[in-house]
Design goal:
Layout (H helix, E strand, L loop, with lengths): L6 H20 L16 H19 L2 H23 L6 H17 L7 H20 L1 H10 L2 H17 L16 H39 L3 H14 L4 H26 L1 H31 L15 H25 L4 H8 L5 H12 L5 H27 L1 H21 L1
Length: 424
């Protein structure tokens, strides 16, 4: 495509302007006599073309053509804003979108900024689409902002401080007793737990308690059912009326865990996949049946869930408690390994499953693939790891979530484990 330059880049600039202009055309004010209209489907492509041509000329005549074009456009935008302000409409959205369109047109031809044409086209396209999406969701964003409280904003900022300020500077190396403590891994786990709780809070604010918690369980199960258990336990402890829904979310996440392990083994080593398929599929199906049972029980026995007052779950004190619990499991697991030794694959599976099933699943699959371990032994190891992980989540539920929440989760897990271990 490079040999056809600058035509692809010019087409990209016009396309970006056309996309944004189409949205602006749809947002045309109903009464243009009282409120001016900056431009739409024709004006914005011209603005993008102005920026593109300015860059083309600047390659031969220094930066002055682009500067003059930018200053001229800015002057027109200032006049447009003044006119709207006098008419009682002092918004800046149209002016800012026009200026951004000009810069996108310039960026489409700026091979000095992004030399690779394909990458430059992707960046300009992504920015144009994101801008159009932002412009077209005005009503939805305003509605969402009315639902957000100041406490929500503060809690979100706490989350971002941990995610982008604290976590990146934590050392990613084994420290502490038995080398079991990796600060980065612990921090990531704390962040993951808080993040899933935060997602659940947002989902409940958007879709109500029922759908919100169930969506959180389903999505969180793709990442970490342990994190879902911790976050749901905190929610159940905070709002006892939501204990039933929170327990259902945990069972959903744990059921998805079995599917996640099956997908991992299918991708890495098919021989292990066919071995673990019967027990894990049986546990997964049992989990689905129990999810349905718990859901219909909840439908019949609904109480005051709709009146529960929600508060943002991201509190540093709660996150640190979860981190302390995770650290304790890591230390106990490593102590057991050091004390009793890796006396077999089964012991390794049980100990590894205390914190995570993905790592032991990948290890077993790679050992079978390399011919270093029998598939039957690997199968039992993976199932034991899943069982161990499930037991730990049951203990977490009782200790951190309260009796009502814990009983519901433990009952479901007991049935699932019985089915799986009998098949093994």
């Amino acid at each position: 495509m490079e040999q056809y330059e600058p035509y692809p880049s010019l087409a990209l600039a016009l396309a970006a302007g056309l996309l944004i202009g189409l949205e602006r055309e749809q947002s045309r004010p109903m009464d243009e006599a009282r409120r001016g209209f900056l431009g739409g489907i024709r004006t914005y492509p011209l603005i993008a073309a102005l920026g593109a041509v300015g860059v083309l000329l600047s390659k031969q005549l220094s930066a002055w053509p682009l500067v003059v074009a930018g200053v001229g456009l800015s002057a027109l935008l200032v006049l447009s804003h003044h006119r709207d302000a006098v008419a009682g409409h002092p918004g800046l959205t149209s002016e800012m979108s026009a200026l951004l369109t000009f810069l996108l047109g310039a960026l489409a031809l700026a091979d000095g900024a992004v030399p690779e044409l394909t990458r430059r086209m992707f960046i300009v396209s992504a920015l144009a689409v994101a801008t159009t999406m932002l412009l077209s969701t005005k009503a939805q964003l305003r509605e969402f902002s009315t639902r957000v409280s100041k406490a929500d904003v503060i809690a979100t900022l706490k989350f971002l401080v941990v995610a982008v300020v604290v976590l990146p500077v934590l050392p990613n190396e084994p420290l502490g007793p038995y080398g079991a403590l990796n600060p980065y891994r612990i921090g990531f786990m704390v962040l993951l737990i808080a993040g899933i709780g935060f997602v659940g809070y947002v989902a409940m604010r958007l879709w109500g308690h029922g759908k919100g918690l169930l969506v959180t369980g389903a999505v969180g199960g793709l990442v970490s059912s342990t994190a879902v258990t911790l976050a749901s336990a905190a929610r159940a402890k905070q709002s006892p009326d939501l204990a039933g829904l929170a327990g259902l979310a945990v069972v959903i996440a744990s059921t998805i865990m079995f599917a996640r392990v099956l997908v991992t083994t299918f991708i890495v080593e098919r021989a292990l996949f066919w071995q673990v398929l019967p027990p894990l599929a049986a546990m997964g199906v049992t989990g689905l049946v129990l999810c349905a049972v718990l859901y219909f029980q909840r439908q019949r026995g609904k109480t005051g869930e709709a009146t529960v007052e929600l508060t943002n779950p991201f509190e540093l004190s709660s996150a640190l408690k979860f981190g302390a619990f995770f650290v304790a499991i890591l230390v106990v697991s490593r102590w057991a390994t050091e004390t009793f030794g890796a006396s077999g694959s089964y012991v390794t599976g049980v100990l590894a499953g205390l914190t995570d099933v993905d790592a032991i699943t990948l290890s077993m699959a790679n050992l079978v693939k390399a011919g270093q371990l029998d598939a039957v032994v690997a199968e039992r190891t993976v199932v034991l790891a899943c069982a161990s992980n499930t037991v730990v989540k049951g203990v977490m539920s009782v200790v951190l979530g309260g009796v009502v929440f814990g009983k519901r989760v433990v009952f479901a897990f007991s049935v699932v484990l019985t089915v799986g271990l009998v098949l093994v």
